[in-house]
Amino acid sequence: MKTDIEIAQSIPMEPIEVIANKAKIDNKYLEFYGKYKAKINLSINNQLESLSDGHLILVTAMTPTKAGEGKSTTTVGLVDGLSRLNKMTIGCMREPSLGPVFGVKGGATGGGMAQVVPMEDINLHFTGDLHAVTTANNLVSAIIDNVLYQGNELNLDPQRILWKRAMDMNDRALRSIHVSQNEPKAIERDDGFNITVASEIMAVLCLSKDLEDLKLRIGRIIVAFTKDGQPVTINQLRITGSVVALLKEAIKPNLVQTLEKNPMFVHGGPFANIAHGSNSIIATRMALKLADFVVTEAGFGSDLGAQKFMDITSINGQFKPSAVVLVATVRALKLHGNEVYENLKTENLEALKKGLPNLKKHTEILSTYGVPFVVALNRFSSDTKAEIEAVQHWCDEHKVPFALNESWEYGSAGAEALAHKVLDLMNQPNGYHSILNLKDPVSVKIETIAKTIYGAASVEYSDLALSQLQDIKRLNLEFLNVCIAKTQSSISDDPKRLGDPRGFTLKIREIRLSVGAGFAVAIAGPIMTMPGLSKDPAAYHIDVDKQGKISGLF
To answer: Residue 41 in 3-state DSSP?
Structure first.
C-alpha cells in the first residue's frame, strides 16, 4: 500500500491558475509561488464585497488519540464530496506547524485519496508565513531587550516582561531560558519560547479582517509592565509598522488544491490546545463570497477547536456556521474504552461501547451551540462491520445523524454519503449562539466554559493566576474574551482522564494577556506552550533522495 506522500506524488497537479479559475478568482489577483501555489491579493475583496455568503461547514472531532482521527482527511474529503455533487465548494485549513511535522503527529494535509497538495511544500516551508510570524515575534523580543540595554527609557520591569520568544519547532529545552548573560551593561532576565503557532502574532494574523485591522491589533498588544505597574504596548515600543511590514505578505491567503483538483485555502496555523485553533478569518470570509459551500476545520476535539470557533472565531469573523461535522473513529472509541493501542486492529465491541460516552459528550457540546451536526465515522481498514454498525446503532438510538466517511480510500466517492447528510442539515433549524457574554468578567467566562463545555464542577486558580485576574480588573480589560489552553487528550485538564470525566476541578495556573487577539489565555493543568519531542520523533524517518524527492513525510 502506498504511503500518503507516495499517493500525493503520484497524482499530477493542475497549474494553480486553473484552480483559481474554478474558484472564480481572476488571474490578476494571483501572486505565484511556483506552479502550484499562489497568494491571493487582498484587493479582490473590493470585488467580492457585494456578494452574498455561502454556507459554512465546520469539521471537528471527538477527543483525539494517538491513533489519529482523520479530521483533516474528512475536511478534504467533504470538499471533494460536495464538489462531486456539483456544489461550488472551497475548503479552508490551517497551515501545518513544523513542530508536529517533525514530532509525533506528522503533517496536516489529510491522507490517502483525500489530501491537499503539494503536500511536501505545505507541510514544510510553504509560502513562508510561519517564518514571517516567527520573525515578527522575535523582533518584538529583540526590541524589548534593546530598550533594557539602552537605558530603559520606558521604565520596563525586567521581572514583568510578558512577551516570549518563538520558534516553530518542538524544543522543550527552550521553555525557560536566561538571556543577556555575560553581556556588559545588559540586564539579565528570565525568558522563554513559545512554539510559533502559540504566539499572539499568529492569533492576531488569523483574527484580523484586513491589513488596517492587523495594524491596530498589533499596536495594542501588551508586552510588559513598567516598574509602577503600567502596561507597555507594541505601539509604545515604536515598532508597529516594522512588525506589520514583516506580515504584509503573510496576511494574504494561500491557494492550493486537493488531489481531485478542488480549491483549498491554507492560511494561518494557531493550535487549538494552546491557541484558538482555526484558519484565518480573511481566508474564510473570502471563501464564503466565492463559494456556495465552505468547509473548514477547528483543531482537536469539540471541547477545544469547536468551542473556540463558536465563541471566538465566529464572533470576530461575523459569520454563522450552517452545520458541523463531528469526526469519530472506531479506534478512538476503543481507546476511550481502555483498549490498549497494540490491540486496536482486533474487534472489541465491549471496549467500543465503553468509549461511546466520549462521543456522547461531544454531541452534547455541539448541541449547546444550537447548530445542526452529523457524526462522520472515518473508516479505517481494520474496522469490522460489527463495530461500524455499533456506532451507527448508537447514533440512531440517540437520534444523531450518521454517515460513514471512506474518503481516505475512495476520495470524493467515499465522502458522497457524508456530503448528502451535510446538505440535509441545511434544512434543519439553526440556533447558533455563543455561550459567552462578553460583558461578564474574565473569571465568569472561564467558569462558563469549564462547567458548560468541559463538565467541571469548579475552577481553582493558582496565586499567580489570581494576581493576573486582579491586573485584568485593574486595567479595565474584563471585556476580553477567553481562550483556554489545556490538554487535547481529555475533556478535562488531566490527559489521563479519558471518556467523559465529570465533576473535576479545572486548575488554572496562569492567565496571559492577548489584547491584540482580544482574549485572555487561561492555561489549565500541565499543558505547555512549547511542546517537546517524543522518544521516536517523525524527524528520524524523513529523507531526501538525490533527485530531491522527499520520503517519510506523513
So the answer is: coil
